[in-house]
Amino acid sequence: QVQLVESGGGLVQAGGSLRLSCAASGRTFSGLNMGWFRQAPGKEREFVAAIDSSGITADYTDSVKGRFTISRDNAKNTVSLQMNILKPEDTAVYYCAARNWFVRSPYAEVKSYALWGQGTQVTVSS
User: Fold this and answer.
1) Residue 26 binned pLDDT confidence (cut-offs 50, 70, 90)
2) How far apart are CA 34 and CA 49, in angstroms?
């Protein structure tokens, strides 16, 4: 069973940068597609970015394109989210999620992910 642990959240001013990391335990990490989601108070959990098991294909929600970059290191069992030019509307709890490589649902589908981390808070001040 794979477990996911996020780190790297914090408080940053608008225009700043943060890098989130997600460490996965277990030996099946390379067979998982990985995603980042976020949830702001009073809002539903929303898709941010995803990357396939090989690290070749990535997808982003429109609001973060050009600002965020998802990457993975299968040798280290980690997936990262580099967040640049942060905006106050990026404030949320960010979650790392995983699903098997053969799941064909859209990356943005929350319920298609079987594994979730505990979340890390990102706060962007104006």
Assistant:
1) confident
2) 9
- pLDDT of residue 1 exceeding 80: no
**What pLDDT band is residue 2 in, cutting at 50, 70 and 90?**
confident
- Positive or negative, the Cα torsion across 74, 108, 119, 98? negative
Question: String of b and e for 19-41 (b: at least 16 CB within 10 Å)?
Answer: ebbbbbeeeebeebbbbbbbeee
Tokens of 59: 């997808």
Ordered DSSP codes for 43-99: S--EEEEEE-TTS--EEE-GGGTTTEEEEEETTTTEEEEEE-S--GGG-EEEEEEEE
Closest CA to 34 of 121, 112, 91, 89: 112
